[in-house]
Amino acid sequence: MNGLKQVEGISAEGPVRIDVVILSFAKNAELRAMTETCLDTLLASESSNDVIFDVIVVESNHQSPEYTQAGVRTLYLPPPFNYHQYMNEGIKRTTSPFVAICNNDLYFHPGWASELLQAFSADTQLISASPACSLHHPKNGFAVNSGVYPGYGVLKEISGWCLVFRRSMLETTGLLDERFYFWYADDDYARTLEKHGLKHALVTSSLVDHMDSKTLEQQSIFRQLMITRKARFVFEEKWAGKSWLYLIRKKVKFYVQIPLYYLGLKKVFKK
């Protein structure tokens, strides 16, 4: 952290505070362990002399006990699950100048946050940033420690599993659009930043590995399809300028196909 300039939220004296909102569904021991690993690696990744994490875990399993790591609060919200609504509730309960919204299937490498803060310090126009995943990004043209890459590409510059932004961004964008309750959340985030001309970048010296969530796999195939298809309709309405008549036709067609699913004709649900 030495040498950081005095810019918004970053002082040359004292640690920087970062609020971290993590969504978890500890339905079983395996998923609980995944969240615990996420928290343990997060809290061990930085010296408290440099960075202090204020963490909220939004836990969807109300029977799962509170997390006991220092600096971690557990928040139980009423169902149904809504990715953006749950994130917003966590954000509203925090006050730090930087906010990280994260999946629970992450492994935080040492110094990941310091590297992001260095990027924010070096570029005052940088509003939002993602760390690189050493498992994903090298296979997609972004080598580790190869630089900072501005852009809005989902699964490229935008790592939806870990997004860090200046809290002041919300003064322009508002909170996350709660119509996206799971799928297309990354795409909506990217389009929103691009619409407002807010700079985002992938910082490849910051490493947070995405271990691939198993939470969605806990849902039935039918439920997964419902989640993804309905979100696509909302996305097309908001960003693709589709008419309401077009969307009504698509929705009617989709719901008419539901009985066919129960007859074993799953192929009708292919994209």
UniProtKB/TrEMBL annotation:
SUPFAM superfamilies documented for this protein: Nucleotide-diphospho-sugar transferases
Record-annotated Glycosyltransferase 2-like domain positions: 29-126
Please report which protein family the annotation says this sequence is part of: Belongs to the glycosyltransferase 2 family.
Give yes or no: UniProt keyword Transferase: yes
Q: Does the keyword Glycosyltransferase apply?
A: yes
**Protein name per its UniProtKB record:** Glycosyltransferase 2-like domain-containing protein
Signal sequence, renumbered to the chain: none
Q: Which UniProt keywords are given for this protein, alphabetically ordered?
A: Glycosyltransferase, Transferase
Q: Kindly give the InterPro entries that the UniProt entry links to this protein.
A: Glyco_trans_2-like, Nucleotide-diphossugar_trans
The record's GO molecular-function terms, alphabetically, read: glycosyltransferase activity
Organism of this sequence = marine sediment metagenome
